[in-house]
Protein backbone atom coordinates (compact mmCIF):
# COMPACT_ATOMS: atom_id res chain seq x y z
CA UNK A 1 0.00 0.00 0.00
CA UNK A 2 2.81 2.38 0.89
CA UNK A 3 4.63 1.61 -2.35
CA UNK A 4 1.50 2.25 -4.40
CA UNK A 5 0.93 5.55 -2.58
CA UNK A 6 4.54 6.64 -3.08
CA UNK A 7 4.51 5.87 -6.81
CA UNK A 8 1.21 7.73 -7.17
CA UNK A 9 2.62 10.86 -5.50
CA UNK A 10 5.75 10.72 -7.63
CA UNK A 11 3.68 10.49 -10.79
CA UNK A 12 1.50 13.43 -9.78
CA UNK A 13 4.52 15.53 -8.88
CA UNK A 14 6.81 14.69 -11.79
CA UNK A 15 4.71 14.03 -14.89
CA UNK A 16 6.48 16.76 -16.81
CA UNK A 17 8.99 14.45 -18.51
CA UNK A 18 8.72 11.15 -20.34
CA UNK A 19 11.59 9.71 -18.27
CA UNK A 20 9.62 9.54 -15.01
CA UNK A 21 7.63 6.33 -15.53
CA UNK A 22 10.58 4.35 -16.92
CA UNK A 23 12.66 5.48 -13.92
CA UNK A 24 9.94 4.34 -11.53
CA UNK A 25 9.65 1.00 -13.33
CA UNK A 26 13.41 0.50 -13.09
CA UNK A 27 13.33 1.33 -9.37
CA UNK A 28 10.55 -1.16 -8.64
CA UNK A 29 12.34 -3.83 -10.68
CA UNK A 30 15.46 -3.26 -8.58
CA UNK A 31 13.54 -4.10 -5.40
CA UNK A 32 11.64 -6.99 -7.03
CA UNK A 33 8.23 -5.27 -6.81
CA UNK A 34 6.84 -7.16 -9.78
CA UNK A 35 3.20 -6.07 -9.62
CA UNK A 36 3.98 -2.35 -9.33
CA UNK A 37 6.53 -2.56 -12.14
CA UNK A 38 4.00 -4.30 -14.40
CA UNK A 39 1.27 -1.74 -13.66
CA UNK A 40 3.63 1.13 -14.44
CA UNK A 41 4.80 -0.64 -17.59
CA UNK A 42 1.22 -0.78 -18.88
CA UNK A 43 0.78 2.89 -18.09
CA UNK A 44 4.06 3.80 -19.78
CA UNK A 45 3.04 1.92 -22.91
CA UNK A 46 -0.31 3.75 -23.09
CA UNK A 47 1.48 7.09 -22.68
CA UNK A 48 4.11 6.10 -25.27
CA UNK A 49 6.95 6.43 -22.77
CA UNK A 50 8.69 3.11 -23.50
CA UNK A 51 11.83 3.80 -25.51
CA UNK A 52 14.76 2.33 -23.59
CA UNK A 53 15.71 -1.30 -24.50
CA UNK A 54 17.70 -1.55 -21.22
CA UNK A 55 14.45 -1.39 -19.26
CA UNK A 56 13.15 -4.48 -21.06
CA UNK A 57 16.40 -6.34 -20.42
CA UNK A 58 16.10 -5.55 -16.72
CA UNK A 59 12.51 -6.81 -16.75
CA UNK A 60 13.47 -10.05 -18.51
CA UNK A 61 16.35 -10.70 -16.09
CA UNK A 62 14.03 -10.17 -13.14
CA UNK A 63 11.43 -12.57 -14.57
CA UNK A 64 14.13 -15.20 -15.13
CA UNK A 65 15.46 -14.73 -11.59
CA UNK A 66 11.96 -14.98 -10.11
CA UNK A 67 11.15 -17.95 -12.41
CA UNK A 68 8.29 -16.18 -14.19
CA UNK A 69 9.58 -17.54 -17.49
CA UNK A 70 6.34 -17.26 -19.46
CA UNK A 71 6.25 -13.56 -18.68
CA UNK A 72 9.53 -13.08 -20.54
CA UNK A 73 7.56 -13.92 -23.69
CA UNK A 74 5.04 -11.20 -22.82
CA UNK A 75 7.97 -8.76 -22.79
CA UNK A 76 8.74 -9.71 -26.40
CA UNK A 77 5.10 -9.03 -27.33
CA UNK A 78 5.25 -5.56 -25.74
CA UNK A 79 8.57 -4.78 -27.44
CA UNK A 80 7.12 -5.71 -30.82
CA UNK A 81 4.07 -3.59 -30.10
CA UNK A 82 6.10 -0.49 -29.26
CA UNK A 83 8.52 -1.22 -32.12
CA UNK A 84 11.68 -1.74 -30.06
CA UNK A 85 14.08 -4.32 -31.45
CA UNK A 86 14.62 -7.42 -29.31
CA UNK A 87 18.35 -7.29 -28.57
CA UNK A 88 20.73 -10.23 -28.62
CA UNK A 89 21.17 -9.87 -24.83
CA UNK A 90 17.42 -10.16 -24.21
CA UNK A 91 17.04 -13.15 -26.53
CA UNK A 92 20.01 -14.91 -24.93
CA UNK A 93 18.74 -14.17 -21.40
CA UNK A 94 15.41 -15.84 -22.23
CA UNK A 95 17.02 -18.89 -23.87
CA UNK A 96 19.50 -19.33 -21.00
CA UNK A 97 16.72 -18.80 -18.45
CA UNK A 98 14.65 -21.62 -19.95
CA UNK A 99 17.78 -23.79 -20.18
CA UNK A 100 18.60 -23.35 -16.48
CA UNK A 101 15.07 -23.56 -15.11
CA UNK A 102 13.29 -25.90 -17.56
CA UNK A 103 16.05 -27.84 -19.29
CA UNK A 104 17.74 -27.96 -22.69
CA UNK A 105 14.72 -29.15 -24.68
CA UNK A 106 12.59 -26.28 -23.38
CA UNK A 107 15.35 -23.81 -24.27
CA UNK A 108 15.67 -25.18 -27.81
CA UNK A 109 11.91 -24.98 -28.33
CA UNK A 110 11.62 -21.43 -27.01
CA UNK A 111 14.54 -20.33 -29.22
CA UNK A 112 12.86 -21.78 -32.31
CA UNK A 113 9.52 -20.17 -31.36
CA UNK A 114 11.16 -16.75 -30.93
CA UNK A 115 12.98 -17.02 -34.26
CA UNK A 116 9.66 -17.92 -35.91
CA UNK A 117 8.20 -14.76 -34.35
CA UNK A 118 10.87 -12.68 -36.07
CA UNK A 119 13.55 -12.26 -33.37
CA UNK A 120 17.07 -12.03 -34.77
CA UNK A 121 19.88 -13.72 -32.81
CA UNK A 122 23.34 -12.23 -32.51
CA UNK A 123 26.66 -13.84 -31.65
CA UNK A 124 25.86 -14.43 -27.96
CA UNK A 125 22.52 -16.17 -28.60
CA UNK A 126 23.95 -18.16 -31.51
CA UNK A 127 26.81 -19.48 -29.36
CA UNK A 128 24.37 -20.38 -26.58
CA UNK A 129 21.86 -22.26 -28.76
CA UNK A 130 24.64 -23.99 -30.68
CA UNK A 131 25.97 -25.36 -27.40
CA UNK A 132 22.44 -26.42 -26.39
CA UNK A 133 21.95 -28.31 -29.66
CA UNK A 134 25.35 -29.97 -29.20
CA UNK A 135 24.47 -31.11 -25.67
CA UNK A 136 21.13 -32.46 -26.93
CA UNK A 137 22.92 -34.45 -29.62
CA UNK A 138 21.25 -32.40 -32.39
CA UNK A 139 24.48 -32.15 -34.35
CA UNK A 140 22.98 -31.17 -37.71
CA UNK A 141 21.22 -28.22 -36.05
CA UNK A 142 24.44 -27.22 -34.26
CA UNK A 143 26.26 -27.30 -37.59
CA UNK A 144 23.51 -25.25 -39.23
CA UNK A 145 23.81 -22.59 -36.50
CA UNK A 146 27.57 -22.45 -37.02
CA UNK A 147 27.04 -21.93 -40.77
CA UNK A 148 24.60 -19.10 -40.03
CA UNK A 149 27.17 -17.50 -37.72
CA UNK A 150 29.83 -17.64 -40.42
CA UNK A 151 27.45 -16.20 -43.01
CA UNK A 152 26.68 -13.26 -40.70
CA UNK A 153 30.31 -12.56 -39.91
CA UNK A 154 30.35 -14.02 -36.38
CA UNK A 155 33.37 -16.15 -37.25
CA UNK A 156 35.65 -15.24 -34.33
CA UNK A 157 33.62 -16.79 -31.52
CA UNK A 158 35.83 -19.20 -29.55
CA UNK A 159 32.79 -20.74 -27.80
CA UNK A 160 31.18 -21.63 -31.15
CA UNK A 161 34.40 -23.15 -32.49
CA UNK A 162 34.89 -25.08 -29.26
CA UNK A 163 31.41 -26.65 -29.51
CA UNK A 164 31.96 -27.59 -33.16
CA UNK A 165 35.38 -29.15 -32.58
CA UNK A 166 34.02 -31.08 -29.57
CA UNK A 167 31.09 -32.27 -31.71
CA UNK A 168 33.38 -33.45 -34.50
CA UNK A 169 35.59 -35.20 -31.96
CA UNK A 170 32.63 -36.91 -30.30
CA UNK A 171 31.29 -38.18 -33.63
CA UNK A 172 34.69 -39.42 -34.78
CA UNK A 173 35.26 -36.69 -37.38
CA UNK A 174 38.79 -35.86 -36.27
CA UNK A 175 39.83 -34.66 -39.72
CA UNK A 176 36.96 -32.16 -39.75
CA UNK A 177 37.90 -31.06 -36.23
CA UNK A 178 41.49 -30.32 -37.19
CA UNK A 179 40.44 -28.57 -40.40
CA UNK A 180 38.18 -26.35 -38.33
CA UNK A 181 41.06 -25.55 -35.96
CA UNK A 182 43.18 -24.55 -38.98
CA UNK A 183 40.32 -22.43 -40.34
CA UNK A 184 39.97 -20.81 -36.94
CA UNK A 185 43.64 -19.77 -36.99
CA UNK A 186 43.33 -18.41 -40.54
CA UNK A 187 40.56 -16.11 -39.36
CA UNK A 188 42.65 -14.76 -36.51
CA UNK A 189 40.78 -16.58 -33.74
CA UNK A 190 43.35 -18.23 -31.47
CA UNK A 191 42.34 -21.74 -30.27
CA UNK A 192 42.45 -22.36 -26.53
CA UNK A 193 43.54 -25.58 -24.85
CA UNK A 194 39.94 -26.87 -24.55
CA UNK A 195 39.48 -26.81 -28.32
CA UNK A 196 42.33 -29.28 -28.77
CA UNK A 197 41.01 -31.71 -26.16
CA UNK A 198 38.60 -33.68 -28.39
CA UNK A 199 40.95 -34.41 -31.33
CA UNK A 200 43.83 -35.05 -28.91
CA UNK A 201 41.72 -37.57 -26.98
CA UNK A 202 40.53 -39.27 -30.19
CA UNK A 203 44.08 -39.74 -31.51
CA UNK A 204 45.32 -40.91 -28.09
CA UNK A 205 42.59 -43.58 -27.90
CA UNK A 206 43.47 -44.77 -31.41
CA UNK A 207 47.18 -44.77 -30.45
CA UNK A 208 47.99 -42.33 -33.28
CA UNK A 209 51.03 -41.09 -31.43
CA UNK A 210 52.39 -38.98 -34.28
CA UNK A 211 49.14 -37.05 -34.44
CA UNK A 212 49.13 -36.67 -30.65
CA UNK A 213 52.65 -35.24 -30.83
CA UNK A 214 51.68 -32.93 -33.69
CA UNK A 215 48.65 -31.56 -31.80
CA UNK A 216 50.71 -31.20 -28.64
CA UNK A 217 53.24 -29.06 -30.52
CA UNK A 218 50.42 -26.92 -31.92
CA UNK A 219 49.07 -26.41 -28.41
CA UNK A 220 52.44 -25.03 -27.32
TrEMBL record:
The keyword DNA-binding does not apply. Keywords: Repeat. PPR repeats lie at residues 122-156, 157-191. It holds the Pfam family PPR_2. PANTHER family: OS03G0856100 PROTEIN, PENTACOTRIPEPTIDE-REPEAT REGION OF PRORP DOMAIN-CONTAINING PROTEIN. Belongs to the PPR family. P subfamily. This is Pentatricopeptide repeat-containing protein. It comes from Cinchona calisaya.
Amino acid sequence: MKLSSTSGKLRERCYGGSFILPCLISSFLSIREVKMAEELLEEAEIKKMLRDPALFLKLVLMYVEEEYLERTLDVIVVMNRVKIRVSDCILCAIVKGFSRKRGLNAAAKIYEDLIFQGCEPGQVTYASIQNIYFRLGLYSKAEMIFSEMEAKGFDKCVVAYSSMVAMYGKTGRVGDAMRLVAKMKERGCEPNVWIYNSPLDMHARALNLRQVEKIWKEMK
